Every structure is written in C-alpha cells, then in structure tokens.
Amino acid sequence: MKILMVLSKSFINDPRVTREAKTLVEAGHQVTVIFWDRKNEYKSQDVFEGIKLVGIHNSLLMKLLPGDLFRNPVWWRKAYRKGLELYKNDFHFDAVHCHDLDTLQSGVWLKKKLGCKLVYDAHEIFGYMIKNNVPNFAVKYSFNMEKKLLEQIDHLITVNEPLENYFKKITNKPITIVMNCKELIIKEYQPPKNSIFTICYMGVLNKARMFPELVDIIGSMKGVKFVIAGKKENLYDEVKEICKKYDNVEFLGTILSGDVIKKTLESNAIICMFDPSMEIHKIGLPNKIFEAMTTGRPVIVTKNMYYSDEFVEKEKCGLSASYESKDIVNAIIKLRDNPKLCEELGKNGLTAAKKKYNWEKQEDKLLNVYEEMK
C-alpha cells in the first residue's frame, strides 16, 4: 500500500512515528510523511531510510498568529493541500495515517476528496494534553471536534488500555493498541559498571516532570550521580544552570534519540516522576518505562498511577514513590544500598520486555491494521 502520514512536529524527533514508518517500509509499503517544520530546520523534501519526508514551513500569517490555537487551522489547510499535491504528482496513496488530533482534520478532508482509507493514531487524549495550556472553551472544542471527526475514520490506533477504554466510549470504530515499546538491544542482563550509583533521565524538562526540583533533590544526595539530557525547550536553560551547582549532576544537553538507550544502559536506574494531579499523567504510559525495561534497569515512578500499578508493580521492575522529595530520596537510597534488589528489578523488567513489551510484538499489530484494510 501507499501510505501518507501526517504529523504536526518534526519527524526525526518523534520515535513512535519514526518506528511505525520504518516498520511499514520494511514490510513493503511506500510511506511519505508530511510534517510541520515549525522552526524551518529541515529541507522541504528529504528521504530518511526509505521514507519520503515533506516539511511544511510556517507562512508569514502563521508566524504572526499568537500560538498554535490559531495556527492549527492554517496548518490543517496547508497539510491538506500538500497531500492533494502529492496525490496529483503520482503518489496515489491508499491511506492517510494521522498522528494525534492536530492532524486529523486534514486527513478527513483528504478522505472525503480522494476516497482513501483513514487511520487515526492517538498518542494521547488530546483534550487532557492541552488542558493546562489553553482556555476551557478550546479544551471543550477539542473533545467535541475529536468525537465528530472519529465518525470518518476507518481504524483507530492508540497506546494503552486506558486510552482504548476512553475511545470505546465515543466511537464504535475498530481499535488497536500499539504500545511505544522499544527494540530489544540485549539478550541477557548486563550489570552497570559505575563506581558511583548513577540515575539518569533523558526527556522533557518541565514542571510536570518535577524539574528543576528533581535536580536539587538528587544533587543534594551523597553517593549518587544524576545524568540529565533534554531538548532545548521548556525549562532547558533553567535546569542547565541549576545543574552547575552540584558536582554529582551531569547535564548532557540535547542528545540524539538513538543515544538515549545507550545512556540508559550505562546507568544504574532511571527516574520518571510525573505530576499526579494532571489527568493525562494518570492514564499515560511513559516511554521511560520501556527504555528501562529493554535495558534491564529499574525505574522509579510516581505512586498510584496507571503505569506504576499496571506495569512497574505488576512486573516488579522498579519502585514507586509519592510525588515529594522525602519519598523519592528513600526510593533512591533503597536501590543504591541494595545492589541485589536493583539487579533483580532490572532483570524482571528485561524479562517482561523480551516476552511482551518489545517493538517486535507491537509491529505485528500495526501491520495487521493495514493488512485488514487492503
């Protein structure tokens, strides 16, 4: 099949989209990705591992508009027109694969115009994701918009059971769960070789992930090293400056996505604290957990969340702590001072990754979606 993907951010920086596109290409499908190159960082057209990339840059109007709330409708129209242009220029795609709600309108327009199949890949519950950043009317509008647009899709892909349960309440379309699992990189447990107990975090640096507070918490501990990496956005500069206060904190800056697993494997444990007051966190499943599992490293997570109860505690692959400094320090000390426990939890995670939570298992489900639509 010929498949057009639509993505509202950089393709290279979204490991889920990259992984799905590569899987489809390796299975013999042709994939082109239209993506929103907001900062004009990439060529208008490029090819990455057999995937054709088509970047859409901000127009003058989009640059003048105050935020994505107003830019999105312009982006939808530009993505739709680019899709029509590709179709007319011999890429007669059989399906449009839309990643998240801020691309789905474009996909619906293309389906109505061309009669192609439409796949909606919901990485998040979009209304929950924007809840703390936009006015209430915009949140309400996004929920209503999604429900209406779902009537036009042929198949829905999402990331975990809570999201599947949510969508089952608002649509009768077929749903497939494709988790953000990682490729297996090691067959057997590899013990860390650090002289100092090393905790790592590679990801978004914002208040909802307990930054910069987490730097002060771990930076003040003895016998522990904290390694951090993140994109140049959100609290990046603030975290970078605070890291300079502590000799036991190493700030790597921005690293390549392909280096995240390598750095994780070099650590003793991973920390992944999400603000439990946010609705989106309660039902989410952070990529950090799969990164920890596939490297055989224990993970420290927030207590009483879906991912801590259903994954970390169920698979016995880490510890959960309340969202406060004292409990986090106690969890770190427990791992630091008990190497046998650290190894046992890491091995449990790796075993679970090999049996169930790996990309090889997930890609079969993705390919089945397209096989059934032929």
Structure description:
- The chain is of the alpha/beta class and 374 residues long.
- The protein folds into two domains: 2-181 and 358-373, Rossmann fold (3-Layer(aba) Sandwich), CATH 3.40.50; 197-355, Rossmann fold (3-Layer(aba) Sandwich), CATH 3.40.50.2000.
- Helices cover 45% and strands 19% of the residues.
- The protein is built from 16 helices and 14 strands.
- The protein has helices spanning 15-26, 60-64, 68-88, 101-114, 126-130, 136-149, 161-168, 213-219, 236-243, 260-265, 279-282, 287-295, 306-315, 325-336, 339-355, 359-373, and strands at residues 2-7, 30-37, 45-48, 51-57, 95-99, 117-122, 155-158, 175-177, 197-202, 224-229, 249-251, 269-272, 299-302, 318-321.
- The radius of gyration is 21 Å and the shape is globular.
- The termini are close together.
- The model has no long low-confidence stretch (mean pLDDT 94).
Rounded mean pLDDT is 94
Q: What share of the residues does DSSP label as strand, in percent?
A: 15-25%
CATH topology descriptor of the largest domain: Rossmann fold
Number of strands: 14
Strand order of the largest sheet: 3-4-2-1-5-6-7-8
Main beta-sheet strand count, sense and barrel state: 8 strands, mixed
